[in-house]
Amino acid sequence: MPDPLVPARLAFAADGTPFSEAYGDLYHSAEGGSAQARHVFLQGNGLPQRWRGRRCFTILETGFGFGLSFLTTWQAWREDPARCARLHFVSIEKHPFQDSDLAFLFKKYPHLESESTRLAARWPMLVPGMHRIEFDRGNVVLTLFFGDLAEGLPQLRFAADAIFLDGFAPAKNPAMWEPRVLRHLARLAAPGATLATWSVAAPVRAALEGAGFSVEKDKGFGTKREMLRGNLISRKKTNPEKNPLRSVIVIGAGIAGAAVCERLAARGWGVTLLERQSAPPAGPGRHAGVFHPVVTRDDSLFARLTRASFLHLLNHGKNLENLEWERCGVLQLARDGEEQAAQRAAIDALALPPGYAQYVTRKAAAAHAGVPVAADGIWFPSGGWIRPLSLVAAQLASAAGRLEARFGCEVSRIARESAGWTAYDHAGRTLAQAPVMVLANAAEALTLAPSRCVRIRRVRGQVSFLPAGKFTAPRVVVLRGGFVLPAHRGESIAGASYDFDDDDAAARADSHAGNLERLERILPGTGARFDPAALEGLVGFRAVAPDRLPLIGALADDGAATPRNPQPATLPRLEGLYGAFAYGSRGLLWAGLGAELLASMLEGEPLPVEGRLADAIDPGRFLLRSVRRATSAPA
Ligand SMILES: Cc1cc2nc3c(=O)[nH]c(=O)nc-3n(C[C@H](O)[C@H](O)[C@H](O)COP(=O)(O)OP(=O)(O)OC[C@H]3O[C@@H](n4cnc5c(N)ncnc54)[C@H](O)[C@@H]3O)c2cc1C
Ligand SMILES: C[S@@+](CC[C@H](N)C(=O)[O-])C[C@H]1O[C@@H](n2cnc3c(N)ncnc32)[C@H](O)[C@@H]1O
C-alpha cells in the first residue's frame, strides 16, 4: 500500500525562521536562507561559472522544502548574462507545503518576489509522483518528485551536473543521508559533476566517498565554520550532446504527432511533419473527448501514469492558445457494488486532495451533475472535456516557426540511410530525410517499422451527437462504462462503442443504440428519448497495444541479437527511430506527457516521469518480455 502524501506543517522558530516541528530543525540558516543557498549550493558547486556556455545545465536537489534554493538559483540564472540556455532543476520532497502556506512563506522573502509569485501560480496539486513546471518560456524547468527520497532517487533518469544536498540535520533526519540512498547519486551524476552540502558530519562524508565522490571541507556559511564540496570520481570526462542537429521527421498529425511537434519545436528542433490527410483541421471540430485520471487502491502504474498525464495536461493546456476545452469536472460512477467498494477504498487509502479526487454519494454526484445520476462514484473536480482537433491546431500553431507541415503526404516506406531516416511515398520518391524520425501514426506505425513481438489493434469507436433540446444534459462529464458530456454549441455527446475487427468508417444505428444503452446506465430514463436511426455520429479508430499502454520512446530492433539478461537500457534499438503511438482510449490524456517524455529523451534531459513509468510504456517492453519468456521456458 502506498503511503499517502503528508504535507508540511507551517511553523516558525522564535526568530521567525521557518521550522519543522516534525523534524525539530530549521529550513535554513537563521542568518539568511538565500545567502546560505548562494554560498553553500551555488558557490559550492562552482556556479554560476560552470553553467556558462552550456546549452543545458542540470541540478539535482534533495529536499525541496519551500523552494528557497530553487528560487535563489533561478534568480542567479536570470541575473547572469552568460547563463546556460536551459536550466533543469530536479528536486525531491516528502512533505511539500500547501499552496496557502507557500504564499504566506514567500511574503517573507520579498527579494525573490518575481520568482516566487510564478512558482506559487504553478504549484502542483499535492499528489505523489513527478511534476514538471516550466518557467521563463520553458528555459527554466522544475521537475519535482513528491515522495520519499529513497523511493524517488531510483526513479530519476538523468545526469546531474550539480547536486545540492539539503536534508535536515543528519541526526534529526537520517533518512536523507543514508549510504544506501546516497549511493544513487553516483548513478545520477554526469561526468564532472559536483556536489555541495552544509553538513560536514563524518557519516555523510563517508557515505559520499563510498558512493564515488571525493569530498573536501570548505568555509561554511554564517556561524557554521565548515561545509562540504565534492566531485564525482569518474573516468568518463564528457557527456556528448545528444542529437546536436535537432532535426526530425514526425509522421502523423493527430494529437500524438502534433504534441511531438510542439514539444520539439519548443526546444528549437526543426520539424518536418508528414500527414496523409489533405489538410490541417479547419476548426475545433464537432467531436470532444474526456480527460480524467484513474484512481486505484494500490496506486498502480496505470494510476500513476494517468495522474502524471492529467496534471501535465492541466498545466500545459494553459500555455496553448485557442484550445477548446472545459474543466467542468468529471464524475466516474461505479458500475456495480464491487466497483463502488473499490472506489471508496482507493479514496480512503490514498488521502488524495479533494481538488484531485473525492468519493461522492449518488446524491452528491447528482448535485454536481445537475441531473439525477445512477450511482455513487468518484468526482474529479479538475477533469473535463476537450476538442481533439482544437488540441491538434493549437499545438501546430505553437510549433509554427520551426515546423514544416506537409499534408497530403502518405508515407509508404521508411529506411535508415547514412543521413539518418528517409520517408518515401508510394512512387518511391523521397518525402523527407532527417537524423531522427518519430512514428506518430497510430496503428499504422508498425506497418512502417514491423515488429515480431507486438501487434497494435485498431478498435472502432462511434460517438452519438444528442440534440440539447431533447434532454437535460449534465453540467459535468459523467462516465459509467461510457460517457455523456455537457451540452455545448447546442448538442451533447454520448459514447463510445468499442468494436474489434470492424473497419466500418461510417456511423451506424446499431452503434448509436449501444451508446443510448450506455447513456441509460448513466442517466436513467434518458436513453429512450432518442431514436438511434435519427442520430448523427462520428467514427474513429483507436490504436491499442496488448497491455493497453502506449508505446513511447526508442523503437527496439527485434531483428538484432539481444544481450543475455536484457534490460531496457541494453536492448538493441533502431537508432534514431522513435514512437509515440498506441494511445488507445486515452490519447487526449497521454499525448502531451508522452511528447514531453520523448522530447526529453531526444535532448538527453531529465525524464518527466518516474523511471518505472518510462519502462512501462517503453516500446522495447515487448521484445524484453519475449526474450525473458524464451530464456525462462524449460528446454
Ligand atoms: C470514439 C472515440 C472516442 C474517444 N474518446 C476519447 C476520450 O474521451 N478521451 C481520450 O483521451 N481519448 C479518447 N479516444 C482516443 C483518442 O481519440 C486517441 O487515443 C487519439 O486520437 C490517438 O491520436 P493519434 O494521434 O495517436 O492517432 P490518430 O488520431 O489516428 O492520428 C494518426 C495520424 O497519422 C496519419 N497517418 C497514418 N499513417 C500515415 C502514413 N503512412 N503517412 C502519413 N500519415 C499517416 C493519419 O492520417 C492520422 O492523421 C477516443 C477514440 C475514439 C475512436
Ligand atoms: C532543510 S529542508 C530543505 C530546504 C529547501 N532546500 C529549501 O530551499 O527550501 C529539508 C527538506 O527535506 C525534506 N525531507 C525530510 N525527509 C525526507 C525524505 N525522507 N525524503 C524526501 N524529503 C525529505 C523535508 O520535508 C524538508 O523540506
Architecture blueprint of SSEs:
Elements: E1 19-20, E2 25-26, H1 33-42, E3 56-62, H2 68-79, E4 86-93, H3 99-106, H4 113-122, E5 129-135, E6 140-146, H5 149-152, E7 160-165, H6 179-188, E8 189-197, H7 202-210, E9 213-219, E10 226-232, E11 247-251, H8 255-266, E12 270-275, E13 289-291, H9 301-317, E14 325-326, E15 330-333, H10 337-350, E16 358-360, H11 362-369, E17 377-380, E18 384-386, H12 388-399, E19 403-407, E20 413-417, E21 420-424, E22 430-434, E23 436-439, H13 445-448, E24 457-467, E25 477-479, E26 483-484, E27 491-495, E28 499-500, H14 509-522, E29 536-544, E30 551-556, E31 573-581, H15 587-603, H16 611-616, H17 621-632
Features of this protein?
FAD/NAD(P)-binding domain; single chain; binds flavin-adenine dinucleotide; alpha/beta; 635 residues; binds S-adenosylmethionine; 17 helices; 8-stranded mixed beta sheet; D-Amino Acid Oxidase, Chain A, domain 2; globular; Rossmann fold
Overview of the structural elements:
The chain is α/β, with parallel strands linked by helices. The protein folds into three domains: 214 residues, 3-Layer(aba) Sandwich (Rossmann fold); 187 residues, FAD/NAD(P)-binding domain (3-Layer(bba) Sandwich), CATH 3.50.50.60; 139 residues, 2-Layer Sandwich (D-Amino Acid Oxidase, Chain A, domain 2). Helices cover 28% and strands 26% of the residues. The chain has 17 helices and 31 strands. Strands 15, 16, 17, 24, 25, 26, 27, 28 and 29 form a nine-stranded mixed β-sheet that branches. Strand 1 and strand 2 form a beta hairpin. Helix 6 packs across helix 7, helix 8 packs parallel to helix 15 and helix 9 crosses helix 15. The radius of gyration is 26 Å and the shape is globular. The two termini are 38 Å apart. The protein binds flavin-adenine dinucleotide and S-adenosylmethionine (SAM). S-adenosylmethionine binds next to helix 2 and strand 4.
